[in-house]
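Justification of computing resources. Each target in the renewal requires a structure prediction run like the one illustrated here; the chain below, 92 residues long, is used simply to show the kind of job we budget for.
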Amino acid sequence: MSNGPFRAELISPIDSSSPMYELYKKHKNMPYHICYECEDIERTVKEMTETAGECMTVQAPDIAPAVSEPGKDRRVAFLMHRHVGLLELLEV
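Resulting structure tokens:
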């Protein structure tokens, strides 16, 4: 779903082997994480973990298929912010 520059992606576990299964079973429908696009993922991860001091890296930058854009791989990283929760960075 899109609204101007904002997009909401709805996800659901396929079966009990999905990484989302236990979380969905416990909390039902809920926001899972917030995703931000960035131009330089290495620099953004460094700034968010060193400057703010409130984030830690959960998954370092890696290449992953873009679920919302089949056939297009993008660099992605996940960070945990102590007040906000899980953040995804997606390199454009």
